[in-house]
Specification:
The structure is a homodimer. Chain A has about 375 residues and is of the alpha/beta class. Chain A folds into 2 domains: about 120 residues, Aspartate Aminotransferase, domain 1 (Alpha-Beta Complex), CATH 3.90.1150; about 240 residues, Aspartate Aminotransferase, domain 2, CATH 3.40.640. Chain A has a 7-stranded mixed beta sheet with strand order 2-8-7-6-5-3-4, with helices on both faces. A 3-stranded antiparallel beta sheet of chain A has the order 9-12-11. A two-stranded parallel sheet of chain A has the order 1-10. In chain A, β5, α8 and β6 form a beta-alpha-beta unit. The radius of gyration of chain A is 20 Å and the shape is globular. At the A-B interface, α1, α3, α5, α6 and α9 of A face α1, α3, α5, α6 and α9 of B.
């Protein structure tokens, strides 16, 4: 029987293939989600609200009062009203809707700054959109490099995708870099280029000058969610923030893909955005753990990327090793789940991504088994 | 700035244009959702579960235990195992994923039996898939007609979409018709045709012999959700059931569109599918109301389609009237929100769709104002 060939062409997930080999005794450093529990008071408040109001549809873009709170919280110039926000099913749907809406598959190209979360490229592939990678340099420890990003834009590039804080490297675009990127984009001849910044790790940073392009560049679309900041990966509550014109188009796509976001999840988000500090509350745990993780990395003897944000650490495997082979060796014979770097872009081949939300002694034991490869 | 032209080409929703004119005094017969409250015990149970387990990601296809319960509940031949179910963000995502996955935009055509929920055609338009309508006959009160459906299949038709019980007409494919449709499809030469049956109103029926194609035809994909049966429109919990081969492809698409469904919503569904009768509990209210609604329709003097299922009634406006003009007249000057038939297919021009979940006296008053048009 027939299928859409674009769906058929997508390969099975390497992450899943590795996760499938996990045993109950494995040290799991492969997870992409927090191990903390969510703040139960918000879930209980939403349950009490549902008992009175039921769980009806909101309008397609999401509950107006929630959108107002989100818009006001981030207060990005030119997109700080409720109408600039669309609530989505996690940041996955936010990114999906953005790529699908902003690009003409017949003409436009997307440029992704890598190493990056593989979903951007997979979505482009599914939508038939041409995409290229700008590989940040291994010998610069994968720091953002604005000049190289600007140089990489081509005549048909219409969307630049930046995940910052970055999964997998934890690298963060700095404020001065966001300004320079905006200036460079505005100076360019030709039609303006959209920037999609995936800010899903923005509450988990260990530096003081994280940069957000939406503060400086008027053609920015922001994707974010409560998944990482509030240990709510399973709540699937994300959003897009965009200027007036694109948001209308984005809401249209969203309305045919999922209709509306979950009303219960929206109520949880409404409570979180209504309590000052609730978005940042779990950040203290990550900052404390981060200091211990950096010490463990330094003690491991492994080469690693200093962790500016998020909850991952990238470590180098021996020169000439293949990251998939190393990940399979680790999971099959050494009891450690780690993600091969290659899935985040060619530039991360030769590396592994480790999550450090498991108990610290497990992280340390995992590092020593990797160091013994 | 540029966009995907397929998104740009989609017109704004007529339903929303009419809803926007609603005032606090309007009689709202335009709603597409229950007015009952959901069964709070399931929401509270999920909140208690979350307090212990958190709300982590499930695997892409959804929680295995929930999928097992759903598969066993419907027990469709060849698709009665957990692996045959994919949990989605409402039936909207289920339908979106099915159309996107099953059809090659370069070669395949989708046939929709109309009058029908407009999303099927809008999704095809968004995906660049050719689509045609098979209009059920007004002079047959829009009954399903299997011979006409089979005759309408063309050489490039690869997906037949049937919503039964139907939104907007409430018509239901009968069991004998489902058998005949399956036999006709199996007898056809050429590559087999997928059938997508949208069963979202299956718990709200007022006849005894509703037909489900998946019982008889091995290339059926089923979409359904808890939205209508359990007054959980805002919970966005839907699913696809499909044979082994297509389900793998469907899960792949789903994993890039929304990653996974909401874990809280999945837990609510797990509780509902674990309590015998919980899916049907609210059906009693609809059956009682249905008898009163049929009496009110008969007394109104309006021509109407007998209601076999769902919670809508289609009524004829005076010959030669335009359904959009009538809906605007009603909302702007007569205080009634009704949906113009034309959005459900050309064959329903000259009709209005009314929802009958509002208080009965309001429904009766709405009917009398429509009769005075």
């Amino acid at each position: 029987m027939g299928y859409n060939p674009k769906v058929g062409a997508i390969a099975a997930s390497l992450i899943r293939a590795i996760a499938a080999k996990k045993t109950p005794d494995s040290i799991d450093l492969g997870l992409g989600e927090p191990t903390l529990l969510p703040q139960q008071r918000f879930i209980d408040a939403a349950a009490r609200w549902a008992a009175v109001h039921g769980l009806r549809y909101t309008v397609n873009a999401g509950d107006h009062a929630l959108r107002e709170r989100i818009a006001a919280h981030y207060a990005y110039p030119g997109m700080n009203a409720a109408r600039n926000v669309c609530i989505t099913t996690g940041s996955q749907e936010a990114v999906y809707v953005a790529i699908k809406t902003l690009l003409d598959p017949a003409a436009d190209e997307m440029l992704v700054v890598t190493p990056a979360f593989p979903a951007y490229a997979k979505i482009a592939q599914l939508e038939g959109v041409a995409h290229r990678q700008l590989d940040l340099a291994e010998d610069d420890d994968f720091r953002y490099d604005v000049d190289r990003i600007l140089d990489a834009l081509g005549p048909s590039t219409r969307l630049l995708v930046i995940g910052s804080p970055a999964n997998p490297t934890g690298r963060i675009l700095r404020d001065a870099q966001a300004r320079r990127l905006a200036a460079g984009l505005l100076d360019r001849a030709g039609p303006p280029i959209w920037v999609l910044q995936d800010e899903i790790y923005r509450e988990l940073t260990y530096i003081d000058d994280a940069g957000f392009v939406a503060n400086y560049y008027p053609h920015t679309i922001v994707a974010n969610s409560l998944s990482k900041s509030n240990a709510l990966t399973g709540m699937r509550l994300g959003w897009l923030i965009a200027p007036d014109d694109p948001i209308e188009q984005l809401v249209k796509t969203h309305s045919w893909v999922t209709a509306t976001a979950n009303t219960f999840a929206q109520r949880v988000a409404y409570e979180i955005f209504g309590e000052p500090g609730a978005l940042q509350e779990q950040g203290a745990w990550y900052r404390e753990r981060h200091a211990l993780v950096e010490a463990a990395l330094a003690a491991s003897g492994l080469r690693y990327v200093p962790v500016d944000g998020a909850f991952y650490a990238c470590v180098r495997i021996p020169d000439g090793s293949d990251s998939l082979a190393a990940a399979l060796e680790l999971v099959e014979r050494r009891g450690v789940v780690a993600i091969p770097g290659r899935i985040f872009g060619d530039t991360l081949e030769g590396w592994l991504r480790l999550t450090w939300v498991a108990p610290l002694d497990q992280f340390e034991e995992g590092l020593s088994r990797i160091a013994a490869l």
